[in-house]
Each structure stands twice: as structure tokens, then as C-alpha cells.
Amino acid sequence: MMDNFTPGPFAEELSAAGIPEHLHAWLGQFGIGALVVKMGIRFQEMSPGRSVATMPVEGNTQVAGILHGGAHVVLAETLGSFAAGMHAGPGRHAVGIEVNATHHRSISTGTVTGTCTAIHLGRTLATHEIVMTDEQGRRLSTARITNMIRDNIPEPRPKAAGQSVAGDD
After folding, report:
1. Which of 49, 77, 130, 147 is the Cys-Cys partner for 118 at CB 3.0 to 4.6 Å?
2. pLDDT score at 137
3. In the CATH scheme, what is the homologous superfamily, with its name and number, of domain 34-151?
């Protein structure tokens, strides 16, 4: 069992990625995900309504030397999914059901900033728009992600010896 004062196994990873301290209890047992680490994504702001993160172009390019279109989508989905997860709150989780992106401009060096803004924060759906910009503030791509908000499935209780549970027959 983990309390809010004991750092989880991913405490160092969370700090390195810029995850605010107040979110460490939420993510401490799971981390931010191997792909987020590999892509070099660093969080600047995190809330259900607005999240911001950066990602280097270097190491995330395609064969022509420009930022891979999939890298745009990874940044967008990361921001939208974390924002939706925060909106879901305790006892619930977010599951991505749709993501799309339009690429407006290429970039071959520098840093990309993704700014995620809530479009709809409902009981069962959360939709966010994510705008990726370069260091001069020029729009590189626009993405939208919709997440379904689900209740966590409770852990099954162990049966006592000799006890049957409805549906076990």
C-alpha cells in the first residue's frame, strides 16, 4: 500500500519530466510511460483544463530530417490523456477513443511546445485540442483527442473456502 508521503518507484522519473509534486502520488506507482521518456517530453503545466509540455526535435525525426508526424501525435496524445486522467479523478480513468492531427509546417531543429486546452470535460467524455508550436510561436500542427472516462474495476475479493459466488456454476 502506498501513502501520499512515500515516493513510488518512479519518483525520479516524474521529477525529471517536470511532473508537479502534487501529482506524484497519482503517478508514483506507474510513471509517465517509456515512450514519453524516450521522446524527451518535459511537462511545464498540468491540469485538466490546460497542460503544456515540450519535446526536442532531435531524436524524433523521420528519414527526411524533419520531426516525425507520429511524434506530433505522441506529444498530443500524452498531453490530452494526462489531462483527461486528471479530470477523471480518483476511482476513474481515461481511455483514448479518438485522436487526429493536421500538420501545418515542418521543423528540423529545436524544441516543440504542445499546449493542450480542454474543449469538453464531461462525466463520460473529455475532449482536448493540442496545438504544437516552434520556438518562434508558429503553429506546426493541431490535434484533437477524445477520451472516454471509465470507473476503475474493483479488485475481486477472494472467496472463503467452500463459498460459491453467483456465476461460478
Report:
1. 49
2. 98
3. Hotdog Thioesterase (3.10.129.10)
Q: How far apart are CA 104 and CA 91, in angstroms?
A: 38
Element (H, E) at 26: helix 24-27
Residue 29's CB is within 10 A of a number of other CB atoms, namely: 10
Domain layout of the chain by residue ranges? 1-32, 34-151
pTM of the model: 0.84
Choice between 20 and 165, residue whose per-residue pLDDT is larger: 20
Q: Cell numbers for 98, please give them.
A: 479518438
**51 close to 82: Cβ distance less than 8 angstroms:** yes
- In the predicted structure, residue 153 carries a pLDDT above the cut 50: yes
Instruction: Quote the CA–CA distance of 53 and 72 in Å, as a whole number.
Output: 12
Question: Among all residues, which ones are annotated catalytic?
Answer: 77
